[in-house]
Design goal:
Adenine-n6-DNA-methyltransferase TaqI, Chain A, domain 2, 2 domains, single chain, alpha/beta, 8-stranded mixed β-sheet, Rossmann fold, 4-stranded antiparallel β-sheet, binds S-adenosylmethionine
């Protein structure tokens, strides 16, 4: 019933019933007491959690009146607050004796640390420092990178009583995003991380949402102990009978939390740097620097522009403009660092749900450099450069394989490719991959798997 515009601005993406049910189950498994604990959902929306809880409490023969005093929500959208109250009343089978859902801004509402469970699928989206009140954000975010969901996470830990549970359905970027190091450290220092669930079958789970989603379950209190095991269950419409895998979090508080592997994953022991390859984000933001975008070549200091869509795995990349074959040119001083003048490859920096791979790389046709002396790439790309073109091509062949893509997905939770994570991704050593490639007649998929296994066997041996 909401317009796409309102939905986007308030980040109103409702939790599907199967996910809400599974999330409530997780809370119960780690000790939430349906018969006693007070609950807060500070972004109550369509009451996905509160109405599910009302239904469970009703089924447990709890008095509707008592339940209505234990369930609490805050929702910024007045209409949704009304809808939520109705839904909860319906699940309880009785009119509500009080306003279970308060209409208001949770981030500006004083909240006491009194809840046995704070559960939310909070709004997501960047906010500027000007729109943030108070100074609590400092504990969980970097000043230039404040996301609403991090603010709600801070609020949730604040609102839980000592040993209360915090259960959040949030973008997986918090697990691995380099700029979420503060949030990871905050969570670990404010309690014990009990589970990090992944939502399976992302397609269509959340209307309009192109993010991987996780479910964080933590108990407020003493900081997370280094050796404590954390469950990593898979949650969602595609239910799996497989038991959740357990592993410890990394030692450093801010370090990324990778997903566990489903079976033993071989460790290659190398990174892109071992291939002599440097990765950096594409430079040119066309809609901010339209003046540089020239209609015709031949103008002084005009360099061809490589767009993300020019990158196709397994093909040489050549610049080609938005309108078919015509190449777009941009003007830069000849000594600008924006211009790539040597052997290079380009990667897509954002992929969508329809693309089977996150990592898509292509060598740039050497003829591009020969003809125009260099090229510039747009900001939706990542540029890979290296002194040795053969080693660069070797790295590109490797990046385009399933084993590398899978390892990348395990650490990254978002559709955009992070340059930092790319630099850190575990790869087989160049000599191992080159040998495996020769032995497999150039079949990079087979060679990548073999090279990882070889490196791992050497480490274990
Ligand atoms: C991602 S939705 C999820 C809602 C709910 N958990 C559900 O699944 O039905 C987030 C909700 O937070 C609400 N919201 C956004 N900013 C808010 C704020 N500052 N205070 C309270 N609610 C807010 C939105 O209107 C939206 O309903």
């Amino acid at each position: 019933m909401l317009s796409a515009k309102v939905r986007r601005s308030q980040a109103t993406y409702f939790t599907p019933p199967a996910v809400a049910d599974a999330t409530v189950d997780l809370a119960i498994e780690v000790g939430f007491d349906l018969g006693r604990d007070d609950v807060l959902d500070p972004a109550a929306g369509g009451a996905a959690f509160l109405s599910t809880l009302a239904g469970r409490m009703s089924a447990a023969d709890l008095q509707p009146e008592h339940v209505a005093y234990r369930l609490n929500g805050i929702e910024i959208d007045e209409g949704l607050a009304i809808l939520s109250r109705r839904l909860i009343a319906e699940r309880l089978g009785a009119p509500l004796p009080r306003d279970v859902i308060v209409a208001g801004d949770a981030l500006r509402t004083p909240i006491l640390a009194s809840y046995g469970l704070v559960i939310a699928n909070p709004p997501y989206g960047r906010v500027s420092l000007d729109d943030v009140t108070g100074s609590n954000w400092e504990d969980i975010s970097h000043s230039g990178h404040i996301n609403k969901y991090a603010l709600f996470a801070e609020l949730s830990f604040r609102a839980a009583k000592p040993r209360g549970l915090v259960v959040l359905v949030i973008p997986s970027s918090f697990r691995a995003g380099p700029l979420y190091d503060r949030m990871r450290a905050f969570i670990r220092s404010h309690g014990e991380v009990l589970a990090v669930g992944s939502i399976s079958g992302r397609d269509g789970v959340f209307l309009d949402v192109a993010q991987d989603i996780s479910v964080l379950v933590a108990r407020k209190g003493a900081p997370h102990q280094a050796g404590s095991r954390v469950r990593f269950p898979v949650i969602g419409p595609l239910l799996t009978a497989a038991p959740a895998i357990e592993q410890t979090l990394p030692v450093e508080p801010g370090e990324a939390w990778p997903l566990p592997t489903t079976d033993h994953e071989a460790v290659g022991g190398a990174t892109l740097a071992d291939y002599g390859v440097t990765a950096r984000a594409g430079y040119f933001v066309w809609n901010r620097e339209k003046a540089r975008l020239l209609a015709t070549p031949g103008q002084d200091r005009a360099y061809p522009l490589v767009w993300a869509k020019n990158v196709q795995a397994g093909k040489l990349c050549s610049p080609s403009g938005k309108k078919g074959d015509v190449v777009d040119f941009v003007s830069f001083p000849a000594d600008s660092t924006a211009i790539v003048k040597g052997a290079a490859a380009v990667m897509q920096r954002t992929t969508n749900d329809k693309q089977p791979r996150r990592l898509i790389a292509a060598m740039v046709d050497p003829a591009v450099i020969e003809r125009w002396g260099g090229f510039v790439t747009e900001n939706h790309t990542i540029v890979l450069t290296g002194e040795d073109p053969d080693r660069l091509a070797l790295a590109v062949a490797l990046i385009n394989t399933d084993p590398v893509d899978m390892r990348y997905r395990r650490v990254s939770g978002t559709a955009s490719v992070s340059v930092t994570l790319l630099r850190q991704i575990d790869l087989p050593r160049p000599a191992d991959f080159a040998a495996a490639l020769a032995a497999s007649d150039g079949d990079a998929e087979t060679a990548a798997t073999a090279a990882y296994r070889r490196a791992d066997a050497l480490v274990e041996g």
